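**Backbone description:**
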Amino acid sequence: MYQYLLLLDTKEEKEFFREIYNTYKNGMYRVAYQILQNRSDAEDIVHETFLTLTEHLDGMMDASEQKNWNYIFTIVKHKCYNLYKKKKWEIETEESPEDLRNIFKEGLDAQIVKMEKKELILKLVKEMKQSYQDVLMLQYYHELDVMEIAEILDTTPDNVRHISMRAKKKMHDILDKYGISDRHDI
């Protein structure tokens, strides 16, 4: 904690940061670990989040406890997603000769279409409202189950199922509107 305090100027900021640190560090770690499933990565995310918070304390000092947690939770979540995407991209770009043979066996055109579909769906998900994005990303991109998602989002499993159902319906409606899908393509 002391390395963060060195980054702060006033006594008031340091006191507030101590309070934030002691109140939220365990919750931040739990969220990061649930998403990443890796202790070291979760610790790194918590550290990065605290560094970010040192730069934005002024906006937090007058906010409610719930608003501060929502803000912190959002930062942790986005940092986890970014790390997860980076690691997944690194893994996916390490093609073995066998992977390359499979790509050409299936046909390059089929692989390109598959990649374009994934990119389109990710783009459409990012345009949806935040609750839909959160559930779909955790469910399909991070492959978490309903119970894990409910715990991360601090809601009930039934609510996660309902949000997921509405988000998928919305996605299909959008795809249908553009003539892209017949509910079986995706």
Notes: The first helix runs from residue 2 to 5. The two ends are 46 Å apart (CA to CA). Residues 3 and 51 are 9 Å apart (CA to CA). The chain has a mean pLDDT of 79.
